[in-house]
Amino acid sequence: MRYIHGFRDGKAAGALAQLIRREAKPDRRYHLMEFCGGHTHAVFRYGIPDLLPDNVEMVHGPGCPVCVLPVARLDMAIELAGREDVILASYGDMLRVPASRRNSLLKARGQGKDVRVVQSTVEALKLARDNPDKQVVMFAIGFETTTPQTALAIQQAEKMGLENFSVFCNHVLTPSAIQSILDSPEVRDLGQVRVDGFLGPSHVSTIIGSEPYEFFAQEYQRPVVIAGFEPLDVMASIVMLIRQLNEGRAEVENQFKRGVQREGNAKAKALVAEILELRPEFAWRGLGTVPYSGLRIKSRFARFDAEKRFDLVEREVRENKACQCPAVIRGVKKPTDCEIFGTVCTPRNPIGSCMVSDEGACAAYYRYRRYAEAG
Amino acid sequence: MCLAIPAYVEELHEFDQATVELGGVRSKISLAMIDDVQVGDYVIVHVGYAITKLNVKEAEESLALFRELAETVGASTDALHPRVS
Question: What is the pTM of this model?
Answer without folding.
Answer: 0.92
